[in-house]
Amino acid sequence: MRPFELSLADAAHLVAAGELSPVELTESVLDRIGAVEARLQAYVTVAADSARESAARAEREITQGRSRGPLHGIPMGLKDLIDAKGMPTTASSRVRADHVAEGDSAVAARLSAAGAVLLGKTHTHEFAYGLTTPQTRNAWDHSRIAGGSSGGSAVAVAAGEATFALGTDTGGSIRVPAALNGVVGLKPTYGLISRRGVTSLSWSLDHVGPLTRTVRDAELVLAALVGQGRRDPAGHAAAPVGRASSEAGDLSGLRVGVPRNYYFERISPEVEESVRRAIGQLQALGVELVEVEIPMARYIQAIQWGLMVPEATSYHERTLRSTPDLYAADVRVLLEAGEFVSAGDYLRAQRARALMRESWARMLGHVDVIAAPAVPMTAVKSGQESVEWADGTVEAVSDSYVRLSAPANITGVPALTLPVGRDRAGMPIGMQLMGRPHDEATVLRVGRAYEVAGADAEAAVAS
């Protein structure tokens, strides 16, 4: 296996053992960027020289016995909404073409302190306001969308252009591209990870989280971002993520909720088959399956848009009036629409969100985790605008992808997506695991158990 193909955990193990140097790993990933970036367009900016300097510094420190942990010397990408001192933060928009960050965001500072090597900034759908990331191509089929808005981060990880990356998630923007590109994406509990220095789309829905190749890798990144035993700036206790792997095998005693409504409605047969098969594998690992009713399902879309649209418009109020032509047409239309949302409508959406949070808390009082599809269909062809379902309904592609992700943003619960199969065209399918607020450990434990069982099964077949 070439260095750029390694998982974070495997690369960290080899670096710690002295069998792989951070310089060698970083050069391998930079070479991979050089080989595929022209086709994939995952990056806005690649900072090769500074990455090499960081890798060389990491190598010296590790050789001198000053290891900072598993992320030390590991190359990674940041979504181009996340400030890193001295680098542009363009949000993939002409509006921010000349913006250079004066300081590190909170998450960039944590990753720097952990010794990670910053490769560059990855593409986003403009200002994270979309689910396709049109600049970037899917890692598995270049004629298909990457998903968004963290499409660049997902493709970079899937294609070996970064060992891990960070994205943001307002309505599925980590989980959607992760699912469409066959990688792992984690949206933590709302407020668990600081958003200081991260360009906002919708302040009450925005989250920051990792995109990785494995669930174990997501654990490692989350631990660095949160800090064991520390508290984040919002005052929330750090999640005890470290215990997930050690308990990964046997899931006896855990209750997994399987939705009887909403999540399995209007999805492709191949997605449903793969996710239900994965749920069956969780049952084989010892979980008790419990059928659950998703509360307030008919109001999810209205609440999501009722919160996101006016909040986004408020953030962009000045530039929307001064330089509207610098926005892409699809984003400008959404921002202009937000000017017609009344204060009363916004407050009603906030009240409805409070009721939904209470309803989800009651539901999650009976189960430990909810398992469901991450997206209703695999990656569509670039340029496709709508999808027709078996019941005859026609849905916009963006509405389709956000539909199954939005509840976790509205309620703020942690949500993990991981690959569980492929469709007939070979495109990845993702399963979503959602848990109680600040119980990332259980969500990761279930995901890791599924992941390990799948790896063991593949090894058995190969032998």
TrEMBL record:
Transmembrane segments: none
Pfam families: Amidase (PF01425)
Annotated Amidase domain residues: 24-444
PROSITE patterns listed in its UniProt record: AMIDASES
Gene3D superfamilies: Amidase signature (AS) domain (3.90.1300.10)
The protein's name in its UniProt record: Amidase
Source organism (scientific name): Streptomyces rectiviolaceus
